[in-house]
Amino acid sequence: MNLDKVIAGFFIILAMTLNFGFFYGDSLDLQMHSKYELFAAIIVNIIATILKLGDKTQMGSVLIASSLVADIQLIAAATLWTIYGIDDTISPEIFGIIISLSGGALLANITSVILYIGDTLKSKR
Questions:
Q1: Of 55, 70, 104, 123, whose Cβ has the fewest other Cβ atoms within 10 Å?
Q2: What is the pTM for the complete model shown?
Q3: Side-chain half-sphere CA neighbours of 77 within 13 A
Q4: Could you state, in order of their start, the residue ranges of all structural domains in the chain?
């Protein structure tokens, strides 16, 4: 067992599940989406991105690219929440944008997990 792969896989999958936890729910109900879960998703996504930096393969490049996409979208969502949610009143339009950005990051994370699983299966053969 390769401990580096276990740790990287753990953070890649955790990033996806935290992102899903934030994304899931009514997109217009602020109470169903936790800013702390968004913050945790950002931190774990950044850790997953850093762990992918050592991979010099073509697959590693695609994994890093998908992580960077997720990082940028989650940071943009948190930035919007910070700018427009100072007094805990965010318009439905802005909150819809925040959830949409999180959804895009979720798709990037799903892509990353699928590629990671495919790379793992390929390396076993």
A1: 123
A2: 0.88
A3: 31
A4: 3-23+30-124
